[in-house]
């Protein structure tokens, strides 16, 4: 089963969207219409943000057909900072379709509700994906971030066609083949909002990664939450789709309105001058909270 990303509008503007068509050329909702399981028995990932880019793109779960769009904060499109020594997102970042972190369910393991989004995926393979690409990955484990008091699972996965895929089968294999990468990932998630004046993010399980079996359980659970969502609806999420038979979410008139409003892809808009700047604010805060650390780091 193949899906094609169709860009509408100019990248780096509030109007930019990435819609999806299936092999028959029919518009679909990537969150709802793309199956969770791949033909190869693994999982389909939707890439929202390619590695080393800064534009914070996400599936617009409240819009008809759930296109990918750039996050907007206080009227401005959002770019993440580069917390030294990182640049942009350090993996291909995206989501699993047909999953949902229930915002009314308190997870007994994290003691926090879900974040009301599809399940996040960090794809760690060597190839830089393209925005909107849908491809097969296998799951290796997860990190449990607590973001603004909400459970925000981060699934660690690798593209099945990656040269390292045969060597990576569980979370421990990442450290063997990519030493330091798990620590770098945890550090990135901990500090990337500090430059915006927010506190460091926290983690469940003391920041320890969980293995493949645990991660598969979370994927299965969030797929179940998505099934319930499609059956019961939600006050703020748009469940419009074009291929499913669950619930009353097929809406030809809404889809036709989207199709007529789609624009050709335009030229990229200019990005802010500081997008490529490096931020050291997280290090400054660390030294303030841990006096004497700068001396130890020089040794």
Task: Give keywords.
Inorganic Pyrophosphatase, 299 residues, Pyrophosphatase, 17 strands, inorganic diphosphate phosphatase activity, disordered C terminus, 7 helices, 3-stranded antiparallel β-sheet, alpha+beta, 5-stranded mixed beta barrel
Please tell me about this protein's structure:
This protein is of the alpha+beta class. The protein has one domain: Inorganic Pyrophosphatase. 23% of the residues lie in helices and 25% in strands. The protein has seven helices and 17 strands. The protein has helices at residues 30-33, 171-177, 181-191, 212-232, 252-261, 281-289, 293-298, and strands at 3-8, 17-22, 27-28, 43-49, 57-59, 68-70, 72-73, 76-77, 82-83, 92-96, 106-107, 112-113, 119-123, 134-147, 150-159, 202-203, 278-279. The strands form six sheets. Strands 4-10-13-15-14 form a five-stranded mixed β-barrel. A three-stranded antiparallel beta sheet has the order 1-2-3. Strand 5 and strand 6 (68-70) form a beta hairpin. Residues 293-299 have low confidence and may be disordered.
């Amino acid at each position: 089963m193949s899906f094609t990303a169709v860009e509408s509008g100019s990248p780096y503007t509030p109007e930019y969207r990435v819609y999806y068509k299936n092999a028959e050329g029919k518009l679909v909702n990537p969150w709802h219409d793309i199956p969770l399981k791949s033909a190869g028995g693994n999982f389909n990932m939707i890439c929202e943000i390619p590695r080393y880019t800064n534009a914070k793109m996400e599936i617009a779960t409240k819009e008809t057909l759930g296109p990918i769009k750039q996050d907007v904060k206080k009227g401005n499109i959002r770019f993440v900072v580069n917390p030294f020594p990182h640049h942009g997102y350090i993996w291909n970042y995206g989501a699993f379709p047909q999953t949902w972190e229930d915002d009314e369910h308190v997870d007994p393991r994290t003691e926090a509700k879900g974040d009301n989004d599809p399940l996040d995926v960090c794809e760690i393979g060597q190839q830089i994906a393209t925005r909107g690409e849908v491809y097969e990955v296998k799951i290796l484990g997860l990190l449990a971030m607590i973001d603004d008091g909400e459970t925000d699972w981060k699934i660690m996965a690798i593209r099945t066609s990656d040269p390292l895929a045969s060597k990576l089968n569980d979370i421990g294999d990442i450290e063997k083949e990519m030493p330091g990468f798990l620590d770098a990932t945890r550090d990135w998630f901990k500090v990337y909002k500090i430059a915006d004046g927010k506190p460091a993010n926290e983690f469940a399980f003391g920041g320890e990664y969980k293995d493949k079996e645990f991660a598969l359980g979370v994927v299965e659970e969030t797929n179940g939450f998505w099934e319930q969502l499609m059956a019961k609806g939600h006050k703020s999420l748009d469940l419009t789709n074009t291929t499913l038979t669950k619930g009353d979410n097929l809406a030809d008139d809404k889809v036709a309105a989207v199709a007529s409003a789609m624009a050709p892809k335009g030229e990229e808009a200019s990005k802010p001058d500081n997008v490529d700047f490096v931020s050291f604010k997280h290090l400054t805060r660390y030294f303030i909270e841990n006096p004497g650390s700068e001396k130890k780091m020089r040794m």
